[in-house]
Amino acid sequence: MQNLAIVLLLSYVIGSIPTSIIATRLANAGDIRKFGSGNAGGTNVLRMLGWKVGLAVILFDLFKGVVATYYMPQLFWDPHPLPFNNYTPFQDFTVVQIICGIGAIFGHIWTLFAGFKGGKGVATGAGMILGLAPVEFVVAILVFAVVFMSWRYVSLGSILAAMAIPLTLFIRENFFHVDIPGYHTLVYFAVAVSLLITYTHRENIKRLLAGTENKLTHFKGSKQ
Fold this sequence. Notes:
Layout: H1 2-16, H2 19-26, H3 42-49, H4 51-70, H5 72-76, H6 92-109, H7 122-132, H8 134-151, H9 154-174, H10 183-200, H11 202-210
């Protein structure tokens, strides 16, 4: 139990690295949470500091999810038996991966280093999904790209991309009869993650319904 608690804590700390806040302060632009949408995420950095810094922030946040999912569990796995009964169809190691990935997402949303006020967890969650379900990750990226290019709403693209993950799992398993290892656990986990992402975008949803959500049509450093 102690080993699992340690890697979970480390995953939370990794997820807590406030990439956007660090980037804006290094650029002498102050606290990103005081500008634009007020969110400590890559989209707000895109608007305020341009696509180069914004993309770097997004990629690093995604990398946090990958590190927590791939490398942190290896510190726990010797292999050690889980400190609880595993009733899922997943192997024990994959269960540890999921736990660590969730820890990183929580760290990103409620960051230890910035008053527990971080981003929405989309990029870090994407990094976790990349490790657990690469096909669904690709589909989610395509959904985001289509939605963003059509309407220029990053929030709407993020929400629909998150929802596409459990839907893709369901369709592949039940309609295309793909034997997805651990499907009956992974699909519920994907639903939980998509609900969490939707919850963190609740204010964006209100603005979308009211027609007041900001579109990302251009950002600092662009030629538009």
